[in-house]
Specification:
By secondary structure, the chain is an alpha+beta fold. Helix content is 20%, strand content 32%. It is built from 4 helices and 17 strands. A 4-stranded antiparallel beta sheet has the order 4-1-6-7, with no helix packed on it. Helix 1 packs parallel to helix 3 and helix 1 runs antiparallel to helix 4.
Length: 308
């Protein structure tokens, strides 16, 4: 199938199906005295290293391939020292609450929101004196805490995604890293050349599956594609250099990505490929290229491709 910048929207629209019920899953996070990364089915869906409070839902259907048990993992770290009393370890009062909800998009006029799952940091009761007790985070004094829990999802679609990808951890890491770096350099070249057809081919599979999972309509798909591609026409767009980065595996070794090693909360764990540009109001915007790569079963390094 030939995908171009001119036909990618129509091609995706043809693949999106609609159903009598269209459940969407999303997560709310409430964090205090900690920053975090949230993963669904071992795929990062949200990073918060700036110690911001996330008031809006984090939609996760794009990380759900089919009905059944889904995995949520959160990795938390102490809040920056200026918010944590100058300490680099967890405070006793650290909290992190995750709630998973589901709603039917086919019934927007009805309150169909349902609580699916809740999870909180473990605490222990500490006796202060004969009459007073307090609950403390059991990870008090540590620098890192990770926890996984599960919930059941029911969705009308089933998408392949990375499910039939090779376990990339079985490939020589130096050889794999060379191929991944080459792919990242290719993305940079395509942007610099403004090769919109090649970019459309590169992102098609990931966008298609995301919009299938979100039941998106044509106006949204068209707007999302235009937002993605038009910023590369901006004459102020400039790639930034990254000296320190790491290769990291996701989705049980079936996806790989290059992530920054940085103490700057704006860049920490973000893509090693990113650029800056000025928007219409003159504000500086950052553009991190989300590139999660996989190799289909039975294929070689030359078939490394973007899946999310």
């Amino acid at each position: 199938m030939e995908i171009t910048a001119n036909n990618i929207v129509e091609k995706i629209v043809q693949e999106v199906k609609h159903y009598p019920s269209e459940p969407i899953y999303y997560v709310y996070v409430a964090n205090s005295l900690c920053v975090y990364e949230l993963l669904v089915n071992d795929l990062p869906v949200h990073l918060n290293y700036k110690y911001e409070q996330q008031a809006t839902p984090i939609y996760i259907n794009w990380a759900i391939l089919k009905s059944g048990r889904q995995k949520i993992t959160y990795r938390i770290y102490p809040a920056p020292k200026e918010f944590n009393g100058g300490s680099d370890v967890f405070d006793a009062e650290t909290t992190f609450d995750v709630t998973v909800y589901q709603q039917d998009l086919k019934r927007p006029d009805v309150d169909t929101e349902q609580l699916v799952k809740e999870d909180k940091l473990p605490t222990q009761e500490i006796k202060i004196d004969e009459t007073a007790k307090v609950n403390e985070f059991t990870g008090k004094g540590q620098k890192y805490y990770e926890h996984t829990f599960y919930f059941d999802a029911t969705v009308p679609y089933e998408i392949e995604g990375w499910s039939k990808g090779r376990d990339l951890r079985n490939i020589n890491p130096d050889t794999l890293k060379q191929a991944v770096v080459k792919f990242y350099k290719l993305r940079k070249q395509l942007v610099e050349k403004k090769d919109k057809d090649a970019l459309a081919n590169q992102v098609y599979a990931g966008l298609k599956e995301q919009f299938i999972a979100e039941y998106q309509e044509k106006p949204y798909i068209k707007s999302a594609w235009e937002e993605f591609i038009t910023k590369y026409d901006n004459p102020t767009y400039e790639f930034q250099s990254v000296e320190n980065y790491k290769m990291e595996f996701f989705s049980y070794g079936q996806m790989v990505s290059l992530r920054q090693i940085s103490n700057d909360p704006r860049q920490r764990e973000k893509s090693a490929l990113w650029g800056k540009y000025k928007d219409k109001e003159g504000n500086t915007r950052a553009d991190f290229h989300r590139l999660y790569l996989f190799i289909p079963e039975g294929k070689g390094l030359e078939d490394l491709q973007m899946i999310r």
